[in-house]
Write a structure and sequence with these properties.
The protein has 15 helices and 16 strands. It is of the alpha+beta class and 478 residues long. It starts with a strand and ends with a helix.
């Protein structure tokens, strides 16, 4: 069989974090009762007129700047005409001819090093509503809460060659946009979703194959599976001497296959024409510089600063900055306790472990920075031993408990009184003659059992290092 190359371009839709919709004053809050956030404008009532939300323009420009785009000083809206039940106007206000951003790039890390993925354009548009299908009753309902929620669509060049590159690209988009505060990019809530345009061609050829588009994929797992499945489907067709048909397909992640929805539309099928109810968007140089001046520190910049300012290894800095929530928590806690490496160790160790065990991601981390800083200081000072510190961390993680109060109430402070420890160790030596004999006979590992027995007798509240030292001395005294 021939070797084939996969060619992928993405259209990524991102819901912006404005409080109100793009052309009206309705709330954009997620999770409300169906059709609670609606008005004549976003439900397409005759005679209603749109008014552009300024914040949408600023967010779109900020994202464009972060991805090295040219920001248009003059852009316009267009009508994209199509009928669908969740599209109340029978058209969508979007940007085709003069989008706000063009010619950018996103740098991703691949197995072969850094790769630059071109951004063809970023444009502003309104979201459609949502159809809810009740298969039991064989009926569909329409919720217009999402209708008119502001979107940017980020259109890449066909520079991606594998599912791994696609995920790396999407992760870089998501992280950067979260740092900008332009969107929460929650795939599970639909505030970030991707359309995958994919074709295959014999390796070494320059001409593109016939592409298909898979719509509205909203999980990295589904995107990966859809890409692999569609790649194999197209190769099987070509190997069988059949043609790939240009079409829009729907991926069913539960069943693990895609099926054709309709033939792939081109721009002329939507009968685009300039939106008559909106004036052009003009961005002055002064306004653009205001937006540029408000740009926050982005992930790569913060990663480099963590290495320089805190002396963290690149690995630590990369993990911490891979979530804005975690990076903010790290900085705040490190500022309070002045132990940045210790804070990093707790976040990368116990915090990541508990997140994995509870099926959460770092963006959902709700640890209080002050509590984390207190725990670091308790552990670092020896006021509690590390085993106890892990118990306290779980209490802080799950219940938000103040660690100092918890340690005090539970009596968990480390016992470092040598008199108390010597009395307990003497009893342990008396109760375990075989282990004592083994140690004195040259079996060094036997002392570990005796340390364990002492810690058990002390209910975990002794300093293991101190226990080890006293035990060694007493065993030698014989």
């Amino acid at each position: 069989m021939k070797e084939y190359e996969t060619v992928i371009g993405l259209e990524v839709h991102v819901e912006l974090a404005t409080k109100t919709k793009i052309f009206c004053g309705c709330s954009t809050a997620f999770g409300a009762e169906p059709n609670a956030h609606t008005c004549p404008v976003c439900t397409g009532m005759p005679g209603s007129l749109p008014v552009l939300n300024k914040q949408v323009v600023e967010y779109a420009a900020a994202v464009g700047l972060a991805f090295h785009c040219e920001i248009a000083s003059y852009s316009k809206f267009d009508r994209k005409n199509y009928f669908y039940p969740d599209n109340p106007q029978n058209y969508q206000i979007s940007q085709l001819y003069l989008p706000i951003c063009r010619d950018g790039r996103v740098e991703i890390q691949t197995g072969q090093g850094v790769k630059s993925i071109g951004i063809h354009e970023i444009h502003m548009e309104e979201d459609a509503g949502k159809l809810i299908h009740d298969e039991w009753e064989d009926i569909s309902y329409v919720d217009y809460n999402r209708s008119g929620v502001p979107l940017i669509e980020i259109v890449s060049e066909p520079d991606l060659r594998s599912a791994e590159e696609v995920i790396a690209y999407l992760e870089q988009l998501r992280l950067t946009i979260q740092y900008l505060g332009a969107s929460d990019c929650k795939l599970q809530e639909g505030s970030m979703r991707a359309d995958v345009n994919l074709s295959v061609r014999p390796a070494g050829t320059a001409a593109y194959g016939t592409r298909t588009e898979m719509k509205n994929l909203n999980s990295f797992k589904a995107i990966t599976r859809a890409i692999e499945n569609e790649r194999n489907r197209q190769i099987d067709l070509l190997e069988a001497g059949e043609a790939v048909v240009q079409q829009t397909r729907r991926w069913d992640d539960a069943k693990g296959y895609s099926y054709a929805m309709r033939s792939k539309e081109d721009a002329q099928d939507y009968r685009y024409f300039p939106e008559p109810d909106l004036v052009p968007v003009q961005i002055s140089q002064a306004w653009l510089e205001e937006i540029r001046a408000r740009q926050p520190e982005l992930p790569q910049e913060r990663r480099a600063r963590y290495q320089e300012q805190y002396g963290l290894p690149d690995y630590d800095a990369a993990i911490l900055t891979s979530s804005k929530q975690m990076a903010d928590l790290f900085e705040e806690a490190a500022k309070i306790c002045e132990k940045p490496k210790k804070v990093s160790n707790w976040l990368m160790g116990e915090a990541m472990r508990l997140l994995r065990e509870t099926g959460q991601d770092p963006d959902s981390l709700t640890l209080d920075a002050g509590h984390l800083a207190k725990l670091v200081l308790l552990d670092n000072s020896g006021a509690i031993n590390h085993t106890v510190a892990k118990e306290v961390f779980e209490e802080v993680f799950f219940h938000g408990t103040d660690p100092e109060r918890y340690v005090e109430e539970k009596g968990l402070k480390t016992v470092s009184d040598e008199g108390t420890l010597r009395a307990v160790i003497a009893q342990v030596i008396k109760d375990n003659p075989q282990s004592v004999q083994d140690y004195r006979g040259g079996k060094q590992k036997a002392i570990g059992f005796l340390v364990g027995q002492t810690m058990k007798a002390m209910k975990g509240k002794a300093d293991p290092g101190l226990v080890n030292r006293i035990l060694t001395e007493m065993l030698k005294e014989g």
